[in-house]
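Aggregate trends can hide what the representation actually does to any particular protein. This step matters because it turns folding into a mapping between discrete strings. For completeness, the protein is quoted in full, as a sequence line and a line of structure tokens:
=====
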Amino acid sequence: MLEPSEIFGDVVTHDSSDAVVRWNEERNRTLFDLGPLAVYSCDAAGVIQEFNRRAVELWGCEPLVGDTDRRFCGSFKLFRPDGSLMPHEQCPMAEVLAGTLSEACDAEVVIQRPDGSRITVIVNIRSLKDEGGNIIGALNCFYDVTASKQTEEALRDSDRRKNEFLAMLAHELRNPLAPICNSLEVMRRVRKADAVSSLSSPAKHALDAAVDVLERQVRQMVRLVDDLLDAGRISRGKMVLRRERVELSPVIYHAVESVRALSDSLQQELTVILPQAPVYVNADPTRLAQIVGNLLNNACKFTDRGGRIWLTVDRAVDFEKEHTPNATAPNIVIQVRDTGLGIAADQLSRIFDMFTQVDTALERSVSGLGIGLTLVRTLTQMHGGTVDVTSAGLGHGSEFIVRLPIAVDTPQEVPPPTAGEPVVTTASLRILVVDDNHDAAGMLARLLEFSGHETHTAHDGMDAVEAANKLQPDVILLDIGLPRLNGYDAARMIREQYTHGAGPVLIALTGWGQEEDRQRSEEAGFHAHMVKPVDEVALGKLLGNLGTRNKRPESDRGAAGPQVRLRVVQSTKVLP
């Protein structure tokens, strides 16, 4: 016979166990409801079995537990990230329950709530299985990322507007630069013709000095504008290379000449050492010159007056690779070393980052946007090369080392011109200059007159179309951003006037220099696209090429314009 104490003891123990179970269940339910993640579960048929408070908040409604009409998810509607409708039967929960997905990890889904609002959630779903491995349900933990997605979109929009601003800024800066550059060229021509001989020696010396200063400063402005555009191209991944087989030495000389004025003005000693044998690379010659030019420009700016700069170009041969059957192509090494400011050790790792300014001291006040070295790294990597920097610290100068693969195929010798080959000279052409900036149009026309051309000007698109019909020009230099009728439409209308002949050569002369701008020029019927401020030498080559191919008597001026296929010249994008 059991004692009462034993019976009551068992009852007390049983009651205590029930209380513990109830307490654990309540604790788990509280954690389930108060947790920051939305959680719900379904059975094998997709019927919702349980959900927490956060899930109801994100759904915007509370489904009925066991409701077979709304399965797999409690949302009103579901959408994919691209905006297309996602039926509930195709949602990640349905795929996990069907076994087509083992689990869903960080899948993105857009939920539309009954009030029409939408949120973006990240879902993580795992199946629940019995002892036999059969799927008996699934659990979904999801959370709201709408705010972060909106922030990302705002950043993308900000980046897009920044790029648009940079392009607009470059365009607006190029417009006044064009007449300034042309005015400088006119002054050079006048000075060369000794048209200022009436001035006293001090006055002529002052004029020469003023022209030299203007040339240097305009050159720097052009470099800054180009850097702004390239910064936008880099951030959008729109940088494009136009590769060809290039001998390195002429490219190096071009880069050296681009900084010669700056180096001379600072009385710096610039030493250039090149390999004796020609070296060929598969590269974009303009961008390759930009790599070297930016490194030299950087060295000049951060080296004190009277300092030294060395530019050394040499082959680099790795002995082991040279004697390995599968050796990679040998490299050419371009080194730019200076006795300048140097770089602190903690700055070396970010020296190539966009907009980085290592020395911002007011007493040095070095100009620049912090873009040049970023361009060096980006362009070098696009060419399949590497760039490194070393410095012993502040006050000990720096050294930049660029390695580029050498073109290993046998160079093709360019035959020398034969005695019977004509020399390119500039014959007189009738040229129509169209620009809504009267100063720009006038100065460019004046400059072309120095080369013996007949020039006319117009200042809007409609006037350009009328002048083209009346004057029958050989060449039309046409701005794009024109009043009344933009340059693209004006070009199309001019082309339509010459249905039975080639018509005039159309050259886009504009501040817009992005790749899409060049593409639009091609579609509009332009033969070439030149970016302001126009390179006078490049334009001269272009017109000289036309002049030698299209000499015709004055009586033929009303006939169709020159039938030509333009060649690529520096600073010009010639369209196919």
